Amino acid sequence: MKKNKSKKLIYVAGALSDDNIGYVQNLHRMIKWEHKIRKLGFATFCPGYDFLGGLTAGDWEYKDYFDNNQPILERCDAVFLLPKWENSKGTKKEIETANRLSIPIFNNTFMLREYFFHKQSDLSFSLY
């Protein structure tokens, strides 16, 4: 099967774990941003969607969620950081992985679009 390289794959990273209400609010924010980035012409991966896998399995722990997402992060063309990620241990690990693999990191859609759609992709870019 031939790979479709026409759309860049963006990993949407941000805080999820919190108390019950906080988790739902964080999940809501993550999905809203994921939709916004998708509408800009990117393919996206939203780690928050693993919520449904964990709900179905009923026995997933934090490590199960994180270990499922990391191989996908390693294949992404960029990482997009959501607002309020700064206290998330998982997001900090995702940033470390992205930096180690020279995956560019963005926190605003203007820079994301500029990097991929205006011939800036030959420049290295990372916020962290």
Structure, described:
The chain has a 4-stranded parallel sheet, with helices on both faces. It has 5 helices and 4 strands. With 128 residues, the chain is an alpha/beta fold. Strand 3, helix 4 and strand 4 form a beta-alpha-beta unit. 28% of the residues are buried. It has one domain. The longest helix is centred in the first third of the chain and has 20 residues.
Overall SS class: alpha/beta
Largest beta-sheet details: 4 strands, parallel
Question: Into which percentage range does the β-strand content fall?
Answer: 5-15%
Distance N terminus to C terminus? 35 Å
For the CA atoms, what is the radius of gyration?
A: 15 Å
In short:
By secondary structure, this protein is an alpha/beta fold. It contains 5 helices and 4 strands. The chain is 48% helix and 11% strand.
Tags for this model:
alpha/beta, four-stranded parallel sheet, globular
Secondary-structure blueprint of this entry?
Layout lengths: L8 E5 L6 H20 L3 E3 L4 H8 L4 H12 L4 E4 L7 H12 L4 E2 L2 H9 L11
Parallel strand pairs: 1-2, 1-3, 3-4
